[in-house]
């Protein structure tokens, strides 16, 4: 999927005059928040698929995932949450004498916490379980972040009340237990190399009684009961259509919020203390003129972009926090008390793909060993909804005291909004985030100021105000990255 | 007595960053690679500030979307003139902003007999009289060699108000002495130190800039 060259008109237009947006719960703010931005993954759509062993849950879940064809869909098996066994339990497990089909075999608390974390948009790691070792695989985890759909699949998915409460859709895959046994036997014997007697014994001792005792009663909590796979095509299709329409509503709501974020009664954002536009000195004006000139060669464009980027970074760094006050001595032996020390290694830069990389040269010229990361947020070509595709962030990112988010142009501001949210989800403090952009529209700046209470500093080379936007329609077209890299 | 506040002296904004950069280059424990890197960063800021003073004229360009943009472009030509050897350390910073800029060279050494500066060598662009000139020398201590170099420029027809003298550290008495000779030359600097010691070194200064940049 490639970013379109023209901005999505739905996001840029601001015809809606609603100023107040009901933020719902705002647990962490004592002051009343007028606006709030919730990226799509803050409220992922959670689908639970439960049912007895051998009923065809996995097939149903897989079919849902493949039919939705949304890249931010995560399929999580409840099997990952099997409790690690102690030595004694492990011996029994190897003798087929351990009840894996009892709800208590699964760490439902951990599963609940993981889904709760994901549901609130946080980066979450889940364990990986080895059926060979009957233990969690040490140092091996699955990290999940930025999912917009989560499919949780497993026998006891619909067992825990707390998990049920987190789900938007609960599906029970039902099959006659005899059918389940038949499927289970062929699977275990053919694919898992078990012997018939062991399988039958397990079925009689554990699987069947547990299913009747703990599972069947849970059917009443399901939103939909799907028959076993062979004849469930229509049922699954109905469910998929339902999910699609829910997702559509969600993305429409999200886009509406984005539009509302562009409104504000902030009369003059140019004077907002968090917005730092480069002072239009002769230099800056001349550089911008050259960069806006369509006829400029790529050779010159790269050179002059690097120059203005360096000026912009200098401006950002002028506010670098003082690391300590110290006394130094010059080579002549003269002491200089109260010298300010700044630590340039306390800064990291995250480049937004596609055009944040334009800042790489100037960043390295300014801080040679700077630690950098990357983020890819793109607007969905059909809905216009921004989505997180890729994140590669430096380890311990929350420890830096300046995290620069660089992008050549900010048009709707949607991807920058999401990127800021990604940093917040990784524990970066709002006041440590610095947005660094060469060209920005007023609406994009407003969105960021509104969404984060004006607490994120925004550094722009040139701001194009709402009134100028018609005359300066180049600010709505992405051209900087293309010209810089020669796409 | 110093003539503060100085006229025609442009001191860079004393931000945390700038003061932090000076802390690094003044510190005797700073390694040579760091000294070079952080000096270069200050030099870049000096060059950018100097360029800001050059005049511009209106220019309308056609943008990506074919809408016109009313901007500006620089008027006139520039060149650099570095005082050998320490001044040459500032050439790269100038080239980083102005590719293939012409750079003249002036070598001035102290005459051992008279203890006065003596001009050993000069090579300047032929049309220097028509150009804005960035005179490059990292330290303005007594002003002796800077005054002699400026004299060379003016004798070649450069107008004093078109000369920008870029340096990293000035002494107050150096500024006064230099401006007594050339009041119209603009000095662009990042730090004004309190004075000179008995050996005519800047206090606190940073040692011998050329030695630290090129050899030590």
TrEMBL record, chain A:
Domain Phosphoribulokinase/uridine kinase stretches: 46-234
Molecular functions (GO terms): ATP binding; cytidine kinase activity; uridine kinase activity
Keywords from the UniProt entry: ATP-binding, Kinase, Nucleotide-binding, Transferase
Gene Ontology biological-process entries: CTP salvage; UMP salvage
Catalytic activity, reaction form: cytidine + ATP = CMP + ADP + H(+); uridine + ATP = UMP + ADP + H(+)
Domain of life: Eukaryota
Pathway the protein acts in: Pyrimidine metabolism; CTP biosynthesis via salvage pathway; CTP from cytidine: step 1/3; Pyrimidine metabolism; UMP biosynthesis via salvage pathway; UMP from uridine: step 1/1
Alphabetized Pfam families for the sequence: PRK, UPRTase
Enzyme Commission number, as recorded: 2.7.1.48
Domain Phosphoribosyltransferase stretches: 280-463
UniProt xrefs under InterPro entries: P-loop_NTPase, PRK/URK, PRTase-like, PRTase_dom, Uridine_kinase-like
Transmembrane segments: none
Protein family (similarity comment): Belongs to the uridine kinase family.
NCBIfam families: PRK05480.1 (NF004018), udk (TIGR00235)
Name listed for the protein in its UniProt record: Uridine kinase
Gene: URK1
UniProtKB/TrEMBL annotation, chain B:
Known EC number: 2.4.2.9
GO biological process: pyrimidine-containing compound salvage
Keyword presence, Metal-binding: no
Pathway field: Pyrimidine metabolism; UMP biosynthesis via salvage pathway; UMP from uracil: step 1/1
Matches recorded under InterPro entries: PRTase-like, PRTase_dom
Origin: domain of life: Eukaryota
Keyword tags: Allosteric enzyme, Glycosyltransferase, GTP-binding, Nucleotide-binding, Transferase
Reported cofactor(s): Mg(2+)
GO molecular function per UniProt: GTP binding; uracil phosphoribosyltransferase activity
Ranges for domain Phosphoribosyltransferase: 14-214
Endpoints of the signal sequence: none
Family statement: Belongs to the UPRTase family.
Protein name: uracil phosphoribosyltransferase
Organism field: Zygosaccharomyces mellis
């Amino acid at each position: 999927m490639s970013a379109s060259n023209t901005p999505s008109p739905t996001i840029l237009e601001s015809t809606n005059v609603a100023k107040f947006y009901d933020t719902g719960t705002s647990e962490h703010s004592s002051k009343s928040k007028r606006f709030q931005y919730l990226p799509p993954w803050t409220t992922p759509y959670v689908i639970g698929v439960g049912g007895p062993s051998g009923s065809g849950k996995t097939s149903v879940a897989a079919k849902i995932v493949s039919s939705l064809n949304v890249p931010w869909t995560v399929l999580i098996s409840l099997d990952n949450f099997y409790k690690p066994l102690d030595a004694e339990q492990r011996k029994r497990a190897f003798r087929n004498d351990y009840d894996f089909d009892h709800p208590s075999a699964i760490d439902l608390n951990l599963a609940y916490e993981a889904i709760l974390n994901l549901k609130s948009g946080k980066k979450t790691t889940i364990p990986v379980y080895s059926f060979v070792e009957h233990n969690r695989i040490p140092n091996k985890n699955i990290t999940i972040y930025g999912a917009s759909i989560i499919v949780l699949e497993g026998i006891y998915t619909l067992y825990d009340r707390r998990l049920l409460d987190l789900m938007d859709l609960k599906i029970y895959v039902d099959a006659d237990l005899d059918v389940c046994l038949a499927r289970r036997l062929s699977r275990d014997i053919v694919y898992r190399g078990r012997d018939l007697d062991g399988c039958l014994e397990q079925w009689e001792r554990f699987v069947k009684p547990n299913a009747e005792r703990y599972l069947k009663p849970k059917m009443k909590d399901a939103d939909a009961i799907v028959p076993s796979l062979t004849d469930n095509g229509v049922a699954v299709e109905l469910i998929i259509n339902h999910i699609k329409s829910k997702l559509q509503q969600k993305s429409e709501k999200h886009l509406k919020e984005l539009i509302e974020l562009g409104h504000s009664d902030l009369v003059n954002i140019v004077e907002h203390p968090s917005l730092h536009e480069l002072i239009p000195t002769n230099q800056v004006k001349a550089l911008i003129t050259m960069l806006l000139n369509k006829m400029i060669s790529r050779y010159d464009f790269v050179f002059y972009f690097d120059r203005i980027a360096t000026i912009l970074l200098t401006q950002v760094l002028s506010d670098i926090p003082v690391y300590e006050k110290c006394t130094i001595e010059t080579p002549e032996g003269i002491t200089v008390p109260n010298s300010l020390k700044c630590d340039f290694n306390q800064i990291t830069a995250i480049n937004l793909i596609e055009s944040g990389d334009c800042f790489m040269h100037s960043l390295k010229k300014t801080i040679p060993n700077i630690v950098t990361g990357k983020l890819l947020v793109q607007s969905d070509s059909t809905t216009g909804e921004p989505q997180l595709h890729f994140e590669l962030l430096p380890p311990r990112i929350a420890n830096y005291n300046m995290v620069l988010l660089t992008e050549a142009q900010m048009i709707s501001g949607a991807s920058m909004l999401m990127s800021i949210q990604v940093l917040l989800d990784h524990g970066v403090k709002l006041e440590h985030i610095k947005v660094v952009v060469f060209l920005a529209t007023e609406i994009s700046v407003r969105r960021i100021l509104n969404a984060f209470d004006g607490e994120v500093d925004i550094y722009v080379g040139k701001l194009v105000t709402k009134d100028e936007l018609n005359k300066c329609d180049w600010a709505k077209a992405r051209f900087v990255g293309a010209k810089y890299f020669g796409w | 007595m110093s003539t503060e506040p100085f006229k025609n002296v442009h001191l860079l904004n004393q931000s945390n960053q700038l003061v932090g950069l000076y802390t690094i280059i003044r510190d005797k424990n700073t390694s040579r690679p760091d000294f070079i890197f952080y000096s270069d960063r200050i030099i870049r800021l000096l060059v950018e500030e100097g360029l800001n003073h050059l005049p511009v004229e209106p220019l309308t360009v056609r943008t990506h979307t074919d809408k016109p943009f009313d901007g500006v472009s620089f008027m006139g030509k520039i060149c650099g003139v570095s005082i050998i050897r320490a001044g040459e350390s500032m050439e790269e910073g100038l080239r980083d902003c102005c590719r293939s800029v012409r750079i003249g060279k002036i070598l001035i050494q102290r005459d051992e007999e008279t203890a006065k500066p003596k001009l050993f060598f000069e090579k300047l662009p032929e049309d220097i009289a028509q150009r804005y000139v960035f005179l490059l020398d990292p330290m303005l201590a007594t002003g002796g060699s800077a005054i002699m170099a400026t004299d060379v420029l003016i004798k070649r027809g450069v107008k004093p108000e078109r000369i920008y003298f870029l340096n990293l550290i000035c002494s107050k008495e150096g500024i006064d002495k230099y401006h007594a000779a050339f009041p119209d030359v603009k000095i662009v600097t990042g730090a004004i130190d309190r004075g000179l010691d008995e050996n005519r070194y800047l206090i606190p200064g940073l040692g011998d800039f050329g030695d630290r940049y090129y050899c030590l």
